[in-house]
Structure formats: C-alpha cells, structure tokens
Amino acid sequence: MTETVGVASVADGVDRQLDPRYIPLQQKVGWIGATVLAGASFVAALIVWAANGFSLAVLAVSAMAWAAVNGAAAWHAQSWPAIAYRHSFYRVDARGIEIRRGVYWRTITNIPRSRVQHTDVSQGPLERTHDLGTLVIYTAGTDHSRVDLPGLAHVTALRIREHLLPREDNDAV
Questions:
Q1: Sign of the CA dihedral 88, 154, 118, 92?
Q2: Angle (nearest 5°) at CA 81 between 77 and 86
Q3: Which of 14, 55, 68, 132 is most enclosed, with most CB atoms within 10 A?
C-alpha cells in the first residue's frame, strides 16, 4: 500500500483518540471475562458452602461475596472501556509516533521512525467485526521493543504502518 495521499494525512502531528468503536469492542471483551468470572466464582462459592456443611450463614456470606465480586466485574466491563478511551491518544508526525494512555498510571511512549525495525497490523475475530485493528511496532533496543496500539480503524492502522516503514532516504536503522 503506497498511497501517498492517505499516508500524508495520517502523519499530520495532530493528537488523535482511538476509534470510538473500540469502546463497544472492549465492553464485549469485558463481558466475556465477567461471565467466565461469574461461572468460576459461583462454582467456588458452592464448593465453600458444601465444604462447610451447607450452613446458611456460609451461604449468605458466599452469596454476598459472589454478588460483590461480580457486581464489580460487571461495572468494570461496562464502564471502564469508556473511561480508558478518554485517556488514550496517539500522534503521528514525520519523526515517528507518540502514544499516550493511562487513567491512573499514565505513560507516554515515543517511537522515532529511525528506531522502527518492522510493523504489523493484526486483527482478531472481535476486532474484525468492528473493522478495527492493532498496530504492532517492533523497535530497536530492549525497552518497549514491542509496542501495541489497539483500537485503530483497520485502514488507519495500515496507513500508519505504511508511514512508519523505512524509506530510501536513510531513515532506517
């Protein structure tokens, strides 16, 4: 993909958020995890109840603990993706890419084009249903030698990948 018009528009130095379709995707992933947790914790609560002689007091404590854990998991599955989305940005310019993310612990990762070894764009089955992709950047060095940027529109991820690839003008490692 050597479309220069699309590549130029992606490397404009403007801070951008991830694609908004990333929120429902992450909610689906969260609900899948919450469902697995609910099933496993229900079985664990039954085992604890049975191990304590089917006591009503143990049943009540187990049921309250199960409800609290799964209520927190449900809140996290539904609400956290939108919160995390509001704190995730990236910027692509002629020098490289900067990725900023984090709600509590914020990180800023700068990747100069000169450090990029190669790039990939991946799509899992749920990402494909939302037409999203993950840009994977492999860099020279040990810290952050692999940097993932999920939540991009698939076409945007491909255009950023094309921009970050080494060119003939000696900007590669």
A1: negative
A2: 155
A3: 132
Burial of 86 (C-beta count, 10 Å sphere; 0-12/13-18/19+): exposed
Q: For residue 151, give the nearest of 11, 16, 15, 14 by alpha carbon.
A: 16
pLDDT at residue 5, as a whole number? 46
Give burial (CB, 10 Å; 0-12/13-18/19+) of 34.
buried
What pLDDT was estimated at residue 169?
Answer: 60
Q: What is the average pLDDT value for the chain, to the nearest integer?
A: 90
What is the residue whose two structure tokens read 């049975």?
A: 50
For strands 146-153 and 89-93, give the pairing: unpaired
Q: Where are the alpha helices (DSSP H) in 52-153?
A: 56-85, 125-129
- Amino acid at residue number 129: T
pTM of the model: 0.84
- CA–CA separation, 10 vs 1, rounded Å? 14
Bridging pattern class, strands 96-101 and 107-112: antiparallel
